[in-house]
Design brief:
380 residues; alpha+beta; twelve-stranded mixed β-sheet; two-stranded antiparallel ribbon; flat
Amino acid sequence: MKIIYSGFDTICFAVKGALSGEALEYLSITKEVAQKEQREIPVKLGKRKIQVNVSSSGLQGGYAYSVNTGPVGLMLSFKHNLCRTQWNGFVKIRSANLAVFGWRQAITDALQVLEGIGFYQCGISLNRVDYCIDFLNLGMEFDPTCFVAHARVNKAVHYGQSPTCKHVDKQVNYKSDRVQSITLGKMPGRQIIIYDKRAEAIAKRSFQWFKIWDVDRHDPTQIVHRVELRAGKNELKNFQIVSLEDFETRIGDLFAKAVHVIRYVNPHVNDTNISRHKSHLLWLHVVEHVQSQLLDFSSGVEPEDFLEVIREEKAREYIQQMKGLGAGYAVCSNIEYEDIPKAVSEEIHNVLQTAISSNDNKFPKTYIRAKDRLRFIRSE
């Protein structure tokens, strides 16, 4: 069984402290603009002029403002509160950031960004930690009945591509007759999920994962299954993991316990007590990896390589849109099929030239908005 990627997939933590009154006022004004224009507004925050995009909405939990630093960056949320002894900041380090930079640098960079935008920090409290292990071509179908877990873990089967039940501890999702995902446990406690990560990456157009895996996304025989271990706030507290020091010293113990109390086993027809069944080879690999390599894996992917995939896919999306619009325009304009290349290209040239030469400034504004929207993925 080949592991092609592993690492922390999400790290979230609350931050005690506050932004300055000036920064909060600036965010308030910018958020109003974002709501009015229904888009993220690019700004530079703090004395270090950190580039962020300000969202038109906040975050559940009383956070009035949310900003992000791009697809390989962070999501930061802030309460409109000047009291430095309260938890006024929230940081979400996303999978792309962790995959490219690794957890140590990602956390260090996050704290430096907070400092750079002027957030006075008095302490942090971890809120969520996810860890993933990606296997290539397991060549097996998952049987939900082969999972061993505590008796309190309920079992339920759901058909369709999306989970519909939120009140059970075990969910099984099917596409046709094949299991797409199995979820055991629920947040903010302990949760383990096994699912077809290749299918999800394609559905969500997250093609950068294929760069990380070094897998051809156009080859349907290359299947990637992910085993994802999640620890919510309650589970972290059970292991007394609050600070970053706690994280580094005890997060391995937490996930080692998780893959011990929940197992995937080989079925044994002569023994009806599933708890006595031996762990499946897959699970032996998961346990060994968690115990030996949890904090050490690195993808080796450079940020520019990651962004290049995103740029290429975004450009491909625009090309596909142009094809569709060109075909529709040709039909509406009674242009013969064989005349489309010349007639439509000439019309596009004329339209763009007119828009650029116009005095109404609409096209320049459209171009500036596109630059703002795509600024984090633009090549320098």
